[in-house]
């Protein structure tokens, strides 16, 4: 404790550091208040190190300035910034899920640059509806009679449930505490602590679970129907699969049962694919089966911006749009612009598989990915690496060993949870530098690079690295090895 007190007394004061010529020069490029705050934070960081007994001697003024400069430079960077995704997870929730097609990016730029006809009918000169920019396309692409959009699929699910709960019973009564029937095997929880039972409660409906975790028959649904039933619900278990001794009623069977009792059938597809991929349900199949309301995400397998898409019977969609909550979940002009541009690409399937990045990445061959891995290694050599097998960076971190290997990628975002895609990765072993330190340096660099840490190596999966990212990725690897951070 005595030593700690002594070190705190030796800690350079904020005013003393601010008097340094080096710090004064920072004022030419940064506001005075920002410089002062950086110095204060640097001093406080060292104070914390001393109090936690993590240092044996007080820092010099130079060391405090080094820390303050690092803080100052990091304050110049936007908190939300571009990341090179080298994880191999195509729909990485933490990294923003689907990267947008160039057409969607350009639509955002064009819409953001000035005014737009968001809620203005140019033909009539009267007020229009913002959702009309995409609803026609959705009906055209899916065959649904009506459509609307909100800001995510959780909101879509909530609004769908509220709409059916407020419908009158077959006998014309308006009842409270109505229930929705769903299989026990479909009571999903997804990332962010989203639980279906809690969404149902928030929507004002009661959960009526039937069957068992692995087997739910049509008869289970039929036995649970009573006067308070307002809908039958099917939920696609998008982020897990129950396999083995399983049985579930098909959507077509649920539709037949629901319509026999005058009940709407709801289909929550989760990811929502417009094209077939693995065992993921296709939106058009749900429409063809006769589901009364269907909802799915825009930023997963659709490959667009975050949105919740609702399709179904006109009267039910109209009821949803009249909900007072609809305004709280509506899309802004930039998301609508990106969504419309993405949907337009689906009019031409070959174009989708090339222009929508999610589909291009999932459809890319291992050979094409290998060529990108080889290009990365070649680019590192061109940027100054003496040998791809071993080279000594300036900080003497030891030799860097680079290895190109085959591996597996994943869709992510809750889509296709059991599917794997053969890929090619670049494995980095920095010798004496600890693998977690190399991973940290890559993450904190510019551009930020996020890979995987496996078997003592940083693994860069080239499936999710774009061609134009190879050169900056190579430069950041070398920078991370050669500069003290």
Short description, anyone?
By secondary structure, the protein is α/β, with parallel strands linked by helices. The chain has 19 helices and 20 strands.
Topology of helices and strands:
Elements: H1 2-10, H2 14-18, H3 21-26, H4 32-51, H5 61-75, E1 83-85, E2 89-91, H6 102-113, E3 120-121, E4 126-127, H7 132-142, E5 146-150, H8 153-165, E6 179-183, E7 189-190, E8 194-195, H9 196-202, E9 206-210, E10 215-216, H10 218-224, E11 229-235, E12 247-248, H11 251-260, E13 265-270, H12 283-289, E14 293-297, E15 308-312, H13 314-321, H14 333-345, H15 349-355, H16 357-363, H17 366-382, E16 401-412, E17 421-429, H18 435-444, E18 448-450, E19 452-454, E20 457-461, H19 470-482
Parallel strand pairs: 1-18, 2-16, 6-9, 6-11, 10-12, 11-13, 13-14
Antiparallel strand pairs: 3-4, 5-15, 7-8, 14-15, 16-17, 17-20, 19-20
Written overview of the protein:
By secondary structure, this protein is an alpha/beta fold. The chain has 3 domains: 2-75, no CATH class; 83-95 and 360-482, Aspartate Aminotransferase, domain 1, CATH 3.90.1150; 102-355, Type I PLP-dependent aspartate aminotransferase-like (Major domain) (Aspartate Aminotransferase, domain 2), CATH 3.40.640.10. Helix content is 41%, strand content 18%. The protein has helices spanning 2-10, 14-18, 21-26, 32-51, 61-75, 102-113, 132-142, 153-165, 196-202, 218-224, 251-260, 283-289, 314-321, 333-345, 349-355, 357-363, 366-382, 435-444, 470-482; strands at residues 83-85, 89-91, 120-121, 126-127, 146-150, 179-183, 189-190, 194-195, 206-210, 215-216, 229-235, 247-248, 265-270, 293-297, 308-312, 401-412, 421-429, 448-450, 452-454, 457-461. Strands 5-15-14-13-11-6-9 form a 7-stranded mixed β-sheet, sandwiched between helices. A 5-stranded mixed β-sheet has the order 2-16-17-20-19. Strand 16 and strand 17 form a beta hairpin. Helix 4 packs across helix 5 (61-75), helix 7 runs parallel beside helix 14 (333-345) and helix 8 (153-165) packs across helix 13. It starts with a helix and ends with a helix. Mean pLDDT is 89; it is low at 385-398.
